[in-house]
Specification:
404 residues; mainly alpha; Growth Hormone, Chain: A; two-stranded antiparallel ribbon; globular
């Protein structure tokens, strides 16, 4: 159980509420930065490749190094967040994110780029874990709603990242100044967190909720399975949607196919916005299941758009819309069950999400090349249906009668 520590000399209620709102907004800003980081690296890889005199495929190892850094940092992020608090962890990792992008902006060789990328991965991991835990701690009475809005900020950042790239490339601004600007923004958010007084919580930690118990708890495994399937399908569709539309029976033009990818991510943002608005009316488990149903039906419809390309726009928007509320609501399910170990819980289930992001997009790409467009889409559909089955099982498990 987690509750405010009223007997620890806390500031008056009004001042405390002001600090809580400020910290929530800073967590939202940090999550938007994480989205920008995801969205703006790809378009600059060719420029980085030329600068460091490395082939494009070897330069692409930067993305792998970020993912590796993220995964390696998960256990430490969970424990630091639990022991020192998510406020401290988010402050630390905004600094790491700033340092990583400053190093990448100035890196002269591939090896130094990979070191910088690993630092960025450490920072991104901490942002993900700490922002979820901080928002959960500060907004216990409207948990699902604020987590949906938090992850909406990720979508906004991911959409903003390519727009920043487009502006920089049009104005002949290199990746170096752009990444330095991103590092300065990260440092500014970290400084704002540093000067904002911490909001203390009284924590009563049930002995059953230690780290070892979390690792074997059935709910943790179920949430991890959902996020493995969800992130794999979401990123796989986002990565290969352009290729699907370019190789349809009636292929879309390059600008039209590119715009469809933006429509997909815009649908995700709207799904999270609506999820936050209705979270007080429906359980987090059920809202996630409804989202999975919408995405599964939209994926089925997408299979029929090969000869009717203009229908792809509303259909891909629906796919993203359905996916929108799934991730934040699964974090909400875990935070409701383990309120005193939100950082640790998030770090564990984020591991499942990270593995899904590595495995399923790769497998979908292999299917696209070897079996064709329909087979690749069907893989995303199967993952979504499997995710829905786990979500339905979670809902039924929660409603089962207590033993006599």
């Amino acid at each position: 159980m987690l509750h405010f520590a009223e007997d620890l000399g806390q500031p008056p209620t009004g001042l405390r509420a002001s600090r809580e709102r400020r910290l929530t907004r800073l967590a939202y800003a940090a999550m938007a930065v994480l989205g920008v980081n995801v969205g703006w690296l790809g378009p600059f890889l060719a420029q980085i490749s030329h600068t460091i005199n490395a082939s494009l495929d070897r330069t692409g190892l930067i993305l792998s190094a970020i993912a590796a850094g993220y995964f390696i940092a998960l256990p430490a992020a969970g424990e630091i967040g639990h022991r020192r608090g998510p406020h401290f962890l988010l402050t630390l990792t905004m600094g790491l994110n700033a340092l990583g992008f400053l190093l990448l902006a100035m890196a002269p060789t591939l090896a130094s780029c990979l070191v910088a990328a690993a630092v960025i991965g450490f920072g991104q991991c901490g942002i993900d874990v700490a922002s979820n835990a901080l928002v959960a701690d500060l907004n216990r009475d409207r948990l699902a709603a604020t987590l949906n809005y938090l992850h909406m900020m990720f979508g906004i950042g991911a959409t903003l990242g390519p727009a920043i790239d487009a502006f920089a490339l049009t104005k002949h601004i290199g990746y170096g100044p752009t990444f330095i600007g991103g590092g300065v923004v990260s440092a500014a958010i970290g400084a704002a967190l540093w000067i904002t007084p911490r909001v203390e919580f009284g924590r009563a930690i049930d002995g059953k909720e230690n780290l070892r118990a979390l690792l074997v708890h059935p709910l943790i495994w179920a949430i991890s399975a959902v996020l493995f399937l969800y992130v794999g399908a979401e990123l796989g569709i986002g990565a290969w949607l352009y290729s699907y539309l370019r190789h349809a029976a009636v292929p879309l033009a390059i600008p039209t196919a590119s715009a469809a990818v933006s429509v997909y991510w815009a649908g995700l943002i709207v799904g999270r916005l609506l999820g936050g608005a209705i979270a007080h009316r429906i359980s987090a488990r059920r809202l996630a299941a409804i989202g999975a149903i919408v995405s599964a039906l939209a994926l089925l419809a997408f299979l029929g758009t090969s000869s009717m390309p203009l229908l792809a726009y509303p259909v891909v928007a629906l796919i993203g819309f359905g996916f929108g509320p799934i991730f934040p609501n699964m974090i909400a399910v875990g935070a409701e069950r383990f309120p005193a170990r939100v950082a640790s819980m998030t770090s564990i289930v984020a591991g499942g999400a990270a593995l899904g992001g590595v495995a399923l997009p790769w497998a979908m790409g292999v299917m696209l090349v070897t079996r064709g467009r329909v087979a690749s889409i069907c893989m995303a559909l199967v993952a979504t249906i499997a995710m829905l089955a786990v979500l339905i099982g979670l809902d039924l498990w929660r409603r089962r009668p207590a033993p006599p």
